[in-house]
Specification:
The protein has 480 residues and is an alpha+beta fold. The protein has a single domain, classed as Amidase signature (AS) enzymes (Alpha-Beta Complex). It is built from 16 helices and 19 strands. The strands form 5 sheets. Strands 1-3-2-8-10-9-18-19-15-11-14 form an 11-stranded mixed β-sheet, with helices on both faces. A two-stranded antiparallel ribbon has the order 4-5. Strands 6-7 form a two-stranded antiparallel ribbon. α2 packs antiparallel against α3, α8 packs antiparallel against α16 and α10 runs parallel beside α12.
């Protein structure tokens, strides 16, 4: 059963429906994998084993009666610890909330459950989602590919759990690059859907939300081992929600079945002053070459009118404004962390300014955001997708937050280097898929961003599937 834990969620669900394997057997295989490896990885911080066993037994009984709960019937999953999960501890990695047990689920948790999934536990995250490494009051999460290296953050436990075979799917989230950076560092697939396509109700635990959660930029996500599972997740969780008025009704996307050679794809390895590492550039060039060999029109291109430094500041402004009016129980901690990271460049400069914005200035910042979104829309209208780095470098060794990171012998600012690529699409709201496409000479994963037009998420996923057929799948970490 060891290979079973590296099946995709789709494969597991189909095997359970076809009675090739029982939900209880699937669960036991994952529990054994967790018991064997979680101590050295520290991906899962709350394990609801007994309730999961009861649900798996009930799932098998339902199958015996001819009942199918949904597309994920009997499939075990985990959830990032910032999401509300009814009856299960939810903490944001902060010891002050270790005893907090929500009364209801976040909307996407309830929709995943309604599709038949079994919530096995909660995954570690950077304390209060405030870093691109995953260290919380539950401790540090280590990269399954090499425990001396970070998994990224803040959804580091999510990526590690999927990479290590603890679960085939984990519900994560991101504001800067919290879901995409760990996917890249750990060699798994991830998606940030178009902003507000998926409800964020309950995406922050209630003690942190105050009167409302973040109404812009923050997005749900998922970690998986296939593009097919990303699509399945989106089909299950998207659509309007009475608890989150910003999400529109589901509308169909007509997907054309096109050969890969008909696609026009742009790519770049540089955003403003931030260039990717040599190993990252090499991987991007290999992907571009493979697509050209398939007959695609592939060109190195970027939006000519886009001011990245101004966009990073704008992203920082709007994030800082949120921090100044939300998260009240922990606001002093988070704002103090921003000041410690002042060397982070444009993002931190903008965040500190945003924390002091007056109403008129806030309105101007929102208008600037709209301009950046329109500029990105115009660029992407010329292409089927845009390929760029997730982050300028692969996973690095566990590191002091705020300390510059060595990239090819040059010192890169910790924060700006970390979110230079991810924050742009957080700001503009465009859908992004992370695809693992290569490895470093040391065997660490390297992924790429595949960016698409807003509200064309399924078009983007269709292209991602075709690209994976060319680039090939990434193996799971050795020893698991």
């Amino acid at each position: 059963m060891s290979s079973l834990v590296f099946w995709t969620a789709n494969q597991m669900a189909q095997a359970i429906r076809d009675r090739q394997v029982s939900a209880q057997e699937v669960l036991e295989a994952h529990l054994q994998q967790i018991a064997t490896h979680n101590a050295k990885v520290n991906a899962i911080v709350t394990l609801d084993e007994e309730r999961a066993k009861q649900q798996a037994k009930a799932a098998d009984a339902a199958i015996a009666r001819g009942e199918i709960w949904g597309a994920l019937h009997g499939v075990p999953m985990t959830v990032k610890d910032c999401y509300e999960t009814a009856g299960m501890r939810s903490t944001c990695g902060y010891k002050k909330f270790f005893d907090y047990i929500p009364a209801q689920d976040a909307t996407i948790v309830s929709r995943i459950k309604a599709a038949g999934a079994i919530i096995l536990g909660k995954t570690n995250m950077a304390i209060l989602a405030s870093d691109m490494q995953t260290v919380s009051d539950f401790g540090q999460t280590n990269n399954p590919w090499n425990p001396s290296f970070t998994v990224g953050g803040s959804s580091g436990g999510s990526a590690a759990a999927v990479a290590a075979g603890f679960v085939p799917m984990d519900l994560c989230s991101g504001l800067g690059g919290s879901a995409r950076i760990p996917a890249h560092f750990c060699g798994v697939f991830g998606i940030k859907p178009t902003e507000n396509r998926v409800s964020m109700a309950g995406a922050w635990i209630a003690p942190l939300e105050g009167n409302a959660g973040l109404q812009y930029m923050y997005a749900p996500g998922v970690m998986t081992r296939s593009v097919e599972d990303l699509k399945l997740w989106l089909e299950i969780v998207e659509g309007e929600d009475e608890r989150w008025v910003y999400t529109p009704p589901i509308f169909p996307e007509v997907i054309e079945h096109r050969p890969l050679k008909s696609y026009q794809i742009a790519w770049t390895d540089n955003f403003g002053e931030i260039s990717a590492s040599q190993e990252t550039r090499d991987v991007l060039e290999r992907v571009a070459k493979k697509l050209i060999e398939q007959g695609c029109l592939v060109e190195k291109a970027s939006p000519s009118d886009f001011d990245y430094t101004a966009a990073w500041e704008n992203y920082g402004e709007l994030t800082g404004a949120w921090l100044a009016t939300r998260l009240m129980p922990t606001q002093p901690i988070l704002l103090n962390n921003l000041r410690k990271l002042l060397a982070g460049g444009a993002v931190i400069k903008g965040a500190l300014r945003g924390s002091r914005l007056k109403l008129k200035q806030y309105g101007v910042a929102l208008a600037r955001r709209a301009t950046f979104t329109q500029q990105m829309d115009r660029f992407l209208s010329q292409w089927d997708a845009w390929i760029c780095p997730v982050i300028p470098f692969p996973a690095f060794k566990h590191h002091i937050p705020g300390k510059p990171i060595d990239v090819d012998g040059q010192q890169m600012p910790y924060v700006l280097g970390g979110v230079a690529y991810t924050s742009i699409f957080t700001l503009t709201g465009h859908p992004v898929v992370v695809i693992p496409v290569g490895q470093t000479k040391n065997g660490l994963p390297i992924g790429v961003h595949l960016v698409g037009k807003r509200w064309k998420d399924y078009h983007l996923l269709a292209l991602a599937e075709k690209i994976v057929e060319v680039t090939g799948a990434i193996a799971h970490p050795p020893g698991y």
